Here is the input.
Amino acid sequence: MTYSPPTIDPATYDPEDWQGGTASLTEEYDYWIDQVEGEIPADLHGTLFRNGPGLLEVGGMPLRHPFDGDGMVCAIAFDQGRAHFRNRYVRTEGYLAEQAAGKILYRGVFGTDKPGGWLANMFDLKFKNIANTQVIYWGGKLLALWEADHPYRLDPASLETLGGEFFDGGLQLGDGFAAHPRIDPGDQQRPPRLVNFALKPGLSTEIVIYELDLAGQIVEQYSQTVPGFAFIHDFAITPNYCIFFQNPVQFNPFPFLLGLRSPGECIQFQPRQPTRIWLIPRHGQGKAKSLETPACFVFHHINAYEQGDQIIVDSICYDRFPSLEREQAYRQVDFNSVPAGQIWRFQLDLTTQTAKQTCLNSRSCEFPAVHPGLVGQDYRYAYLAIAHQPQGNAPLQGLLKLDLVTGEQAVWSAAPRGFMGEPVFVPKQLGQQLWQAPDSAKDEDDGWLLALVYDAAHHRSDLVILDASRLQPGPVARLHLKHHVPYGLHGSFTPQLFESA
Ligand code: CO
Here is the structure.
């Protein structure tokens, strides 16, 4: 595999093209995809679920930040070379209330205010559970996730909202459930587990960890209190540890309480403070360890694994918190004014409790994916959405496959008019469970990469399917949807097929 430079002039993308993908999609669809370029692999069987903000305005009033948009779930079912598309909004209490009122009733975590200025927003601490960040099928339940509140359960076939999910009392009303559960594939001794966390803020922060069995029951719950405020979106796991990066940020609540700022805008990066890494033993056994590394900001981790006395963690790091200025509308954002995510490796020495960090790839990237059978295990390939240009910051337009052993890269780019969403890796050798490890190391990239690409030329989205072992020739199939899908957040694949109502 060799890196060949993209063939398109790397200088430009048109900001207006990018803005097209920030438009709301109000319609809910249900159809067989009949416009396909190439061929859908016959062995690709199952359902890709994706979540993301679908409504970027309410009653004609634009949201100030896309992360505040109501969750809209897409399901693309693959069966014998055919594919079926469906999308539906998560009918949260907030969505139903705002749609009925025809206006914004809630403050947004990331910057959307209710109309009426600071008086209307002052001391209004009520947020809308927007269920917009991730969707996952586990224990026979399809769950739409948003980190600050409980999941919503959806019917996996119709995507109809069934209600809040509390895992038979395992969660209480008001408990969070992060949008980044990790599935530990387990081994002969250990059955697979879904591991997730929630933060309970205060002067110190309690990190609560939940482990769910294959039946979807919370079978273990343990916690660790860490000093100070914590903004933690994702974590990493190994067979023996849960790993959290406590970003060096402070939270100043007063502008928020006074209605002048959203909580997301009250976060201040502290460049002179270290990032604190917490290693919390799985199953609540043993004491947590904490290590320091120079200040950085992490939303997403790629993977982690144990290696002797070391733990290796690969993450997407920003040199500071990538926030928008109050005056800046996100649709007009100058990407070059916002820091870019880069791939860093952290080698954590458990004996000396020190960390060593190395930049593995400086190209702007986000949305990492790995083989699901190697979560928490030594692995070789990472897949990411990347900017088209090797330097600077720009919208995500390409896919990168990074060989962590040789450093080799393979790139496919949808530039200049295509904009890339998160890739999902689906192994070709797929049983009823997604998370079986590859038969041998050489099979690690024997799979498909699925991603939604916004095509500005046609103002519609394509689902692209690439062969992960051969990225360069481009998609083996491009499925043209009848409409666009607004830029989404995260998704997951299940070998179960859900295509009909
Ligand atoms: Co995320």
